[in-house]
Structures
1.
Amino acid sequence: MIRHLLKISDFTKEECEKIIEKSIEIKANPEKYSESLKNKTLLMIFEKPSLRTRVSFETGMTQLGGHAIFYSIKDSPLGKKENIHDTAKCASRYVDLISARLFKRKDLWDLAKYSDVPVINMLDDFAHPCQILGDLQTIKEKKGTLNGLKISYFGDSHNNVTYDLMRAAAMFGLKMDVACPEGEAYEPEKEVLDEVEEISKQTGAEVRVVHDAKEAANNSDVVYTDSWMSYGIPAEQEEARKKVFMPFQVNSELMKSAKPDAVFMNCLPAKRGYEQTAEVIDGPQSIVFDQAENRLHIQKAIMLFLMNKF
């Protein structure tokens, strides 16, 4: 059966753990996997720009002995000149894996629906599973476990990273506070809240949306934030959004409310003086570049898993 990764909850907790362990192994022994995907080809479809996503996938595929093709659809949108069904069917005849970074979840879902090879979501408006799997690996490396932790997220929560981080927290039975301004434009979608609630019933997770940053930071093991100006948000909204989100900025004072050994994470890109201060992201509790590096290793593990290579 063909498996796709469209959101982190497409995998079970046990599968996520297996992928994380494989990623840690690959990180320690990269040469062992240098021919694991020999003569295999990955098609990378990009509607949104990326640094870490493109470089980690392309480098990862090369280091596994395969080949990656970068295909930009910025000037030729998916489903316009040719319907998504035909794109998926044709591409499946050429390549062994398809990854896509798109604006709309429906386009990603349709690509997977009609593809005859595994499809990996490199980001859409509903999920960012590769990022969160890499984040979980980083947390495990730094904390030694993924059990019994509290994660706090601050800022824009109407956001793909937030959604999959919430799903992951629910799957792993963790505590998580999502701190954001009130309002539909800033809070998680109901569909995500409902999914997280259902998963939490099975795992005992406690995932909350709160509107007080200090309350959310209290007793946290992991402090996480993301950009206030995600791709697609008009530049003219920047000043207004900055004013709305500033009470949720991660600064040294907020970090004092977390545990003394709390780590700081940002999936990048980061703007100092916005979602976090320079003293936090460049400080001793920051693990953002370890987090960024692990994107390379986790992409490899994800591709090997979907290709039934472990």
2.
Amino acid sequence: MNSNIPSSEILKKYLTNVCSVEERTLVDAWYQKLNLDSGETFLKSEQSELYQRIQNQIYQEESLSSAPKIIPLRIWTFVRAVAAVIILGLGFLYFSYNNLKDKDLAKINTDSSIVTFKNNQKKIIRYPLPDHSIVWLQPGASLSHPSSFNPNKNREIRFSGEGFFDISHDKEHPFIVNCGRVKTQVLGTTFNVQANDNESTFKVSVVTGSVAVSTPNRKNKIETVILKPKDQAIYEKESQNITVNVLEHAALIHENWQSVSLTFDETPMSEVASRLQQTFKIKIEFANLHIKKCRLKVDFNNQRLSEILDMIDILLGTTYEIDGSKITIKGEGCKSKG
């Protein structure tokens, strides 16, 4: 990377306002050379949304730095160059903003204190909330939340679609997810929510901790069930009934939001795909059969399907798309015989 470009560490310090005078001067000088001034101004709500994307990019860059395989130079160059530009501060994110608003960035609520985001990509997106909680959004999922949570109130958001929630513990400020008539309340835990408008049921599945799911019944009285790990609440929209089931999946079958550990040692992608299909409830297809010949050498330690797919994309220079339970991997592939 060009030595005139600040390191990601300096850029992170710049964002959090803990950099030295010399470091700030370096970043400011670099920015001036970028000549990215668009003349656009950003609403407070837009700045909050962009800041969430900055945090996401920082997370992705840090994840890449711990990859157990040597990544080809052309991919590293691309990743570092993009990261260096995107993780700049809010005042000069013209490049990032223009790339987001047509793909990821949903319409911003007219109330500047509310941020609304929809995953318009065909992949799972990691979305950080103001309290450092994380939501893994499936394609089509959307959420709305305050740009910052009020310290005198509960942490409350609205959500639709499917997403996996990893909530920061705060016993003084319960976290509440509103999905239509269904309300899910937690203090700090991990759980999955399926609240698709076009489906007849809403589902909440708990991985760790406990969750309280509440909804009004036909008599308009609030009914609440408490879920523990491996419990799943199912709310039927038509009958307005809520039931609790215990998830009893086979030991080797996981939902795509559950963490697994897998090791591949120069394994052809055809075998990698077969292993992932056996582990998760998915079907994997290759847009280019040459991808099957690529070999993967990597350890996945307690990682979810989305994290595994993201790392495969980085290692092989591919991209993936999700359509229901089908995943399509695209790219040039490997010409050499495997």
